[in-house]
Amino acid sequence: MMEVKKIQSRQNEAYKKLARLFQRPRERKKTDSFVVEGRREIERALVNGYERMQCWFREESVQPISDKCAVFELKKELFDALSQRSGNENEIAVFKTRHWRLENLDLTPKSKILVAEAPEKPGNIGALMRTAAGAGMDAVFIANPKTDLYNPQSIRNSLGGIFSIPVVLDSSEKMIAYLKNHSFFIAAAVLNNNSINYTDCEYKAPWAIVVGTEAEGLQAQWLEVADACISIPMQPPIDSLNVSVAAGILIYSALE
After folding, report:
1. What domain range is 51 assigned to?
2. Do 153 and 212 belong together in one domain?
3. Which of 61, 63, 86, 231 is the most exposed, fewest CB within 10 Å of its CB?
């Protein structure tokens, strides 16, 4: 029978470590772990092979745990102080970080990849992951990352989709080399004189759609290697879309 440790004080060392995982990217990197809140997201992480290290339950809501991990029952007030779900969830888990590498990907000549260059906002990263997972993409590449992948907001916005497909973090240079070496058709989302309407792009498998930031777009190196530059028509005064919205339009158009 599992041992349940009851935590009643903010001064408890395990509780303080849990709080730091929620709040500090540096702590997640140092401990090679991250937090997941919510039964749905926790189940999706488990189903996709992530290792659960700790499980924290809101007071009086402890459930049986099948895997080997430390189990804590947390005082209601302390749980609610950490929770980002406004009292809608009773469970938090700590998982071991999973590191995907370009050289270990198991892709095929029919693979479809989304590349996002330098996304900064965790909410956008989560939305990109939700879209990519929902569309059945084979992998997501985050080039020149500016924030950690497993920010709680990224996980929440992805609805657990972040666990469903491989997510590689690396430099644009290494990703370009990988895509070229594996004969990917590269479609870069950019508005310039060489751009064509996204609906006119003829994709050849395997393919990758590359999106940049709303503020700066893509770096020149992506445009130099792109097989096609594609754009989404805008009506003034709007000149750009949220990156996750744009990615969704482009992905689903390419899948038609």
Report:
1. 4-96
2. yes
3. 86
